[in-house]
Design goal:
Layout lengths: L10 E6 L20 H10 L3 E6 L20 E4 L2 E4 L23 E7 L22 H7 L4 E7 L1 H14 L3 E10 L6 H11 L3 E3 L7
Parallel strand pairs: 1-2, 1-6, 2-5, 6-7, 7-8
Antiparallel strand pairs: 3-4
Pathway: Cofactor biosynthesis; nicotinate biosynthesis; nicotinate from nicotinamide: step 1/1
GO molecular function: metal ion binding; nicotinamidase activity
Organism: Vineibacter terrae
C-alpha cells in the first residue's frame, strides 16, 4: 500500500525518546535501540518540521519499581489513573541517561517536548500524560503551524511511539509510524498487539524508504 503521509509541508516528524537510557547500555535499554539511528537521521534530514520528545523524570518517580517496596521492574500495579507498568529508574532529569543519544541529529528540532515530569503520573504519549487528561500542548502547537499529518519514529515502538500515534489519530491527525526507524520492548507480545491497534485506528505502518528518506 502506498503511503500518503509524507514529510513535506503540512507534516511533522515526531522523534520519540531517542535517549541514552533507552539505548544499549542504558537503564531501560530497548534491543536495537541504537541501530535505528541512521534511519531516524535520514528522516530528520528529509522532514519539513521536526519535534523531539524526551522522557524527563524526577528522582523517585512513581513509575519506578524502586519506590514501591517489594515490587520489581516490569510488574504492573494499579494507580489513580489505572494500570501502571513499573520500570527501572530511567531518564532522570539532568543525568546522562536522560540525554539524547550523541548520534541523534538534534539541531533541526523546532521543539523539544519533555514528558513524565509529574512525580505521580507517567507519560508515554507526546500528546497526553497517562492520566489521559493532562495535555503536553503539542496538539495546539502543531495546529498553529498548519500540521495535519504526523510521522512517528523512535523508542519504543510498542509504548511511547504507539501511544503517541494513537493519540494523534484520536486528535484527528493523519498518522504514519516508520517501522524501520523504531525498536520495540516487546513485553508479553506488546509489539504485535500495538501494531494491530495502530492499524485498526488508521495508522499507516511504513518505512523510511517509502517516505523518501
Amino acid at each position: 500500500m502506498s503511503d500518503t503521509t509524507g514529510l513535506g509541508p503540512g507534516s511533522a516528524l515526531l522523534v520519540i525518546d531517542v535517549q541514552n537510557d533507552f539505548c544499549p547500555g542504558g537503564a531501560l535499554a530497548v534491543p536495537g535501540g541504537d541501530a535505528i539511528l541512521p534511519a531516524i537521521n535520514a528522516l530528520i534530514g528529509a522532514a519539513d518540521l521536526v519535534v523531539l520528545t524526551q522522557d524527563w523524570h524526577p528522582r523517585r518517580h512513581g513509575s519506578f519499581a524502586s519506590v514501591h517496596k517489594g515490587r520489581a521492574p516490569f510488574e504492573t500495579i494499579t494507580v489513580a489513573y489505572g494500570p501502571q507498568t513499573l520500570w527501572p529508574d530511567h531518564c532522570v532529569q539532568g543525568t546522562s541517561g536522560a540525554a539524547f543519544h550523541e548520534e541523534l541529529l538534534t539541531d533541526r528540532a523546532a521543539l523539544i517536548v519533555r514528558k513524565g515530569m509529574r512525580p505521580t503520573v507517567d507519560s508515554y504519549s507526546a500528546f497526553f500524560e497517562n492520566d489521559r487528561v493532562t495535555t503536553t500542548g503539542l496538539d495546539g502547537w502543531l495546529r498553529s503551524r498548519g500540521v495535519s499529518r504526523v510521522v512517528c519514529c523512535g523508542l519504543a515502538f510498542d509504548y511511547c511511539v504507539a501511544y503517541s500515534a494513537l493519540d494523534a489519530r484520536r486528535l484527528g491527525f493523519s498518522v504514519a509510524v516508520v517501522e524501520d526507524a523504531c525498536a520495540a520492548i516487546d513485553l508479553d507480545g506488546s509489539r504485535a498487539a500495538q501494531a494491530a491497534a495502530m492499524q485498526a485506528a488508521g495508522v499507516v505502518l511504513t518505512t523510511a524508504a517509502a517516505l523518501g528518506a
